[in-house]
Amino acid sequence: MTCPDVRALLFDNLPEPEKERLRAHVSGCEACRVETERLKATTQALRSVPDEEPPVRIRFVSDRVFEPSWWQRLNPFGGPGLLAHAALAISTLAAAAIIISTQWGGFAARPAANVRAVQVDQAAFDQKVQQSVDARLNVAVAQAVREAEARQDVKFRGMLAEYHKQQQQDEEKLVHQVEAAWRYEDQLKTRALYAALEKPANGAGQ
Amino acid sequence: MIFREVEDRDLIKRAKKGEVDAFNALVSRWEKRVFNYLYKLLNRREDAQDVAQEVFLKAYQNLRKLEDAGKFTSWLFRIAHNEAYSLLRRSRPEDEFVMDPASGDTLRRLYPSETALAVASAMERLTGEQREVVVLKVYQGFKFEEIAEVLDQPVSTVKSRLYTALDVLKDVLAPIERVAERRSGDRS
Fold first, then answer.
1. Is B90 strand, coil or helix?
2. Are residues B66 and B139 both part of a single domain?
3. Half-sphere exposure for B20 (CA within 13 Å, toward CB)
4. Do A56 and B170 touch (CB under 8 A)?
5. Which of A50, B2, B106, B181 is spaced 20 to 30 Å from B70 by Cα?
6. Number of domains into which chain B is organized
7. B159 and B117, same structural domain?
8. For chain B, percent of residues with pLDDT exceeding 90
9. Last residue within a domain, chosen from B97, B128, B144
10. A-B contacts (CB, under 8 Å)
11. A152-174, pLDDT tens digit by residue?
12. How close A85 comes to chain B (CA, Å)?
C-alpha cells in the first residue's frame, strides 16, 4: 500500500474531509505517525526562536525626515525639480536651434556660436542655482547670527545687572566698614581723653 | 483574523485616498513581521532595519497600484523579498547566497538557549531559497499560494523547497531517536 503525503496535513489548507482521511491513515500507520511527529517537533523547535522587536521604529511617511526640502517643493510634479526642468527646456531649445540652423543653413556658418549659446545657458542656469543657494544660505546665516546676538545680548544684560548689584553691595559694605572704623577711632579718642583727664587728678592727690 | 483582514482592507482603502495616518497604522501593524522576515534572510539587524524602511517607503509610493487589498500581505512581502535580494546581490554577487559563520554566531548570541542554538545550526545547512520558504511558511504562516506570489514561483516549487528543507531540519531538530523517546515517555 502506498502512503499519502502526510506533510499536507501539517502545511496545506486541506478541506476537512481530506484532513480526516489523512488523520485516519496516520493513526493506523506507524511510519507516517513517526514522520508526522518529527515534522511537528521540527516546526515547534523552529518556532521556539522568538521574533524580535525592530531596533528602531520604522519611520512614518509623515515623519519630518520625509518632508520635502525647499528644493523639492519648487517642483509640483515630483520629478527632478522646476529648475532642472527649466534647464532641460533651455538645453532642448538650444539643441533644436542648432539642428534647425544646420539643416536650413541659416546659421550653418556659425555652429560654434550656437554651441557656445548652449554653454552660456547652462552656465546661466548654474549661476542662477548658485545664486539661489547663496541667497538662502545668507538668509539662514543672518538668521542664525541674529539669534546668537540676541542670546548674547540677554546674557550680557544679565551679567551687567549682576555686576552693578555686586558693586552696590561692595560700596555699602565699605561705607559700613568706614563708619565702624570711625566709631572705633572715636572710642579710642574718648578713652585717651579720659585717661588724660584722670592722670593729673591722680598726680595732684599724691 | 477575519476582523484583522477587514481592518487592513479599510486602512488600505483610506491610505489610497491619501490618508497618511491610515498608512502609518499599516506600518505599525506590519513592521515587526517584515523586519523579522528580513532579519532571518539577511542576518544583520542593521540591514534588516534599513531594508524594512525601504520596503514601507516603496509600499507607500506604489499603494495605488495594488488592485486587490486582500493581497496586501503577499504584495508587501513581495516588495520585501525583492529589496532583500537586491541588497544580497549588491553585497554578494553570486546567485545563491549562503549564511556565513558570523551570522550563525549572531543568532547564537541573540538566542543563547539550547534549542535556539540547534535552530541556528540547522538553518545554516539550508540554501537561501530553502531558508526563505521556511521563514515564510513556518515563521510567517503564509499559505503555499501566497508564498508562490511572494517568490513569483509555482506552488509546486515552493512545496518542493519547503519539504527538502524540512528533511534537512528534521535530522538536526527532531531525530528519530528523540521522537521515539518522547513517545515511549508519553506511554509510560
1. helix
2. no
3. 9
4. no
5. A50
6. 2
7. yes
8. 61
9. B97
10. 98
11. 777 778 888 888 888 888 888 89
12. 22
Of B81, B97, B113, the position where a domain reaches its end is: B97
Predicted structure pTM score: 0.58
Can you spell out the DSSP letters for A137-198?
HHHHHHHHHHHHHHHHHHHHHHHHHHHHHHHHHHHHHHHHHHHHHHHHHHHHHHHHHHHHHH
Does residue A151 belong to the interface with chain B, where contact is any CB pair within 8 Å?
Answer: no
Residues of A numbered 42-61 whose beta carbons fall under 8 angstroms of chain B's beta carbons: which are they? 42-43, 45-61
Measured over the CA atoms of residue A5, residue A13, residue B85 and residue A58, the dihedral's sign is negative
User: Which structural domain range is residue B132 located in?
Assistant: 100-188
Give the closest-approach CA distance of A32 to chain B in angstroms.
12
Q: Which residue of B has its CA nearest to A7?
A: B163
* Whether residue B121 sits in one domain with residue B90: no
Q: Give Dmax over CA atoms of chain B in angstroms.
A: 63
Q: Do the Cβ atoms of A55 and B178 come within 8 Å?
A: no
Q: How far apart are CA B125 and CA B135, in angstroms?
A: 14
Residue A81 to chain B, least CA–CA distance (Å): 18
Helix count and strand count (H, E) for chain B: 10, 0
Same domain, B105 and B85: no
Q: Which of A7, A45, A53 sits opposite B118 (nearest CB)?
A: A45
Q: Least CA distance to A10: which residue of chain B?
A: B138
Which of A49-58, A117-126, B43-52 has the highest mean predicted lDDT (pLDDT)?
B43-52
User: pLDDT for B120-131, tens place per residue?
Assistant: 889 999 999 999
Distance between CA B64 and CA A61 in Å, rounded?
A: 15
Residues of chain A with C-beta less than 8 angstroms from the C-beta of B39: 52
Please state the domain extents for chain A.
7-46, 80-187
Tell me whether 0.90 is exceeded by the ipTM.
no
pLDDT digits (tens, 9 = 90+) for B157-170: 999 999 999 999 99
Cβ–Cβ gap B49/A56 under 8 Å: yes
Verify that B10 and B82 share a domain, yes or no: yes
Domain CATH number, residue B75: 1.10.1740.10
| Residues B67, B124 share a domain | no
The CATH number that applies at residue B121 is 1.10.10.10
Query: A61: which chain B residues are within 8 Å (Cβ-Cβ)?
Result: 20, 23-24, 56-57, 60
